[in-house]
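for the writeup, i need someone to sanity check this before i put it in the appendix. the sequnce is what the collaborator sent (i think, or maybe the updated version? ugh). structure was predicted straight from it, no edits. if anything looks off just tell me and ill rerun, i have time this weekend
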Amino acid sequence: FCLPFIFKDKKDKINMEKACLNASIEIRPIISGNLLHQPCFLKYGNASGFENAQILHENGFYIGNNQFVNDDKLSILSYIINNNF
């Protein structure tokens, strides 16, 4: 249903986001991320106490998969990845 990207370096994430948006590739945040940032979950703990969830929250996003993905769009994504990382 999606192609997730999780970066070790937040700078790489930002660069990839910009490259995707410049190529009209829609991106979305990783769905779960760190849920403790949501007001309804504040009573369950401090968001900073969950390091791995925080990495997803800050350094991840995904590209959706749908019926409109074709070879041309995959070629654009391949070019972005191969020429930026």
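The longest helix spans residues 71-84. Residues 7 and 59 are 5 Å apart (CA to CA).
thx in advance!!
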